[in-house]
Hints:
The structure holds 2 protein chains of 2 kinds. Chain A is α/β, with parallel strands linked by helices. In chain A, about 40% of the residues lie in helices and about 15% in strands. The longest helix of chain A is centred in the N-terminal third of the chain and has 23 residues, at about 150-170. Chain B has one domain (about 5-75): ACP-like (Non-ribosomal Peptide Synthetase Peptidyl Carrier Protein, Chain A), CATH 1.10.1200. Chain B is about 60% helix and about 0% strand. The two termini of chain B are about 15 Å apart. At the A-B interface, helix 1, helix 3 and helix 12 of A face helix 1, helix 2 and helix 3 of B.
Amino acid sequence: MSTDHGTTTTGVAAEPLATALEHQRAGRGAAALDVLARLAQGRPDLRQTSGADRLLARLRADGAVAGWARREATVAVVSSHTSGQLAAAVRVAALAHGLAATTVETGYRTYEAAVVDPASELYAAAPDVVLLVVDARELHLPELSEDPEADLAAEVARWTGLWRPLRERSGATVVQATFVPAPDDALGDLGAVLPGARRRLVRELNLRLADAAPAGVHLVDAEAVAAEVGARVWADSRYWFAAKHAVGLGAVGALAARLTDVAAAALGLSRKVVVLDLDNTLWGGVVGEDGLGGIALGGTPAGEAFVAFQHYVRSLRRRGLVLAVSTKNNPDEARRPFSAHPEMVLGLDDLVAFEAGWGTKPDAVRSMAATLGLGLEAFVLVDDNPAERERMRHELPQVGVVDLPPDPSGYVAALARFPGLQTVALTAEDARRTEQYRARHEAQRLSTSAASPEEFLAALGMTATVEDLSETNLARVVQLIGKTNQLNLTGRRHGTAAVEAFGVTPGAVVWAMRVRDRFDDHGLVAAVVAVPDGTTLRLDTFVMSCRVLGRTAERALLAALVEHAGEKGFARVLAHFVPSGRNAPAQRILPEAGFVRVEGGPDVDAAPPAGEHGPVETWELVVGRDAARGSEHLPVRRATQVAAVA
Amino acid sequence: MSTVRDDVHEVIRDVLLQPDLELEDTSTAGDVEGWDSLAHLSVLFSLESRFGITFSDAEMGSIQDVGELVRIVERKAS
């Protein structure tokens, strides 16, 4: 951690909380939060979590949190047992994602009533995320069931019956911890064997809930958390009898980290690019000094550990993460193991960027961010060298930095535990992301060789398709609305339920747009929600992935919307730009598409309230008076009107 | 060389995030701001982790003041 923010006065200079407290007391709120976020990444124990949460409350009172956080969210902890420590651990774990969470708890034993009662405090809090953490003691499953199918069906119906009102009334993302069988079973090992035994039924219920979970409901594998911390730590009966702690206090931190990780992924806060060092990270030794034959990869225990780590890293691509390399090496030497070492698992085609040279790693990441069109918070560095890690943290605190242990056998666990690498759904876009980013690199090269931006766009051979909301694009549309920060006109974060509701509102438009060019299919990159308001079609939400920034796609989409409005007899399209502090790139979208600024006027009532980042702008495009400026380089096809266009 | 008493006090100060808190043997949870029943459980658990000890069922509900807490930890940790 950086120590140049001030000197410590206590004897525990290395203690992160002491450092964070000093920052807070000296009015350096953001620095204090950076230290807490780093502490949260490393699984703090209960003592640290308790202190960190108290410091977070002070920072919130100081007004330091809002300016620091990437996102603020209200998280409801719906639990059958004492949840105070869990809520505190969630607030702390959220910091690892740049998420500022305020929590509301339903209180001991009242969870079902709170979910069922539309007037409960749970709904009054308007949660963005609901964490359902219920003890297996609550399940109506006997020690040995006479009718396992009926008992299971009743439990599945009970839980899906709680998810439904939660989703419908709050629209919140629901994250449910699966049920953990009690460690002590009257039936002994038969508990896992007999078809009607409780242990087996609890596990079967978890599987059925996974099958029954609709969009917007995510499960966290609590039994895996219990296994990680140990069954006796998970279920510490002394704390259960003393204060109804169903999850042992030694397990609360690990559970909170997993719940928060999945919730953050659902909110679109996951990281996207894993930047790998080479020497002593992907193989043992230094290829520039030891040579191709001298590096440790396969063969020895350490060499086998590096191979296993490469397999794990490669498998992250399936989650939608993409891989890149940043190494201080001669480019040719750095690439040689990829092409010539027989034990090498990762290939150059697994990577979207390869930065080899003698510049700094923060510069390498900055360059990747610019090329790939991503924010710095999308990146995570994996490097064995503590000095490189410190430098990255110091220069680019937005970049995640994994603390690798000294031995490569521990690398997989360190990366697996790192927050922000979860995916809640494997969309086709996620799975294809590496190909997309690599194609963007190619296009970038073309742009530097093209004489003018116009030539570049023309040479791309782009086409776009606009389609209505459907079952197949719902997950991606919600993901885009949830995670798009820059090209986002209004910043509204509609969840699945809200988007589905717009989809069935008469006259409303919920569109998704796909873009492809001659290098790549960029997939579903933009979404709009527009609602009728008399003769006005009002743009509620407009989000577009930065993947297609500078491709005139925003104009193409708005022109298609204006054309649709004309066909449906609307007199005009009304739109707002709500500054969020992060969406400055979206400010040009409306004027460039031909919209005209409206000052005051009868429709300003429909505008969202002014945010803290500046006044809301109101824009309109009157059909027949103003011409929409579409894109000459991006022909748009309506998927629902295929016959008419073809 | 820090004593068990010092270390117990340190754990309490850390859980409550009050590095300047002065504790006496006669201090009770009610005397200290922020030391509610939830914090008390966190203090007990953190002491168990710090000293590798286990409070008995009876002790979990009966500890009256900081002095008693220190005496129990001293007995168990020795």
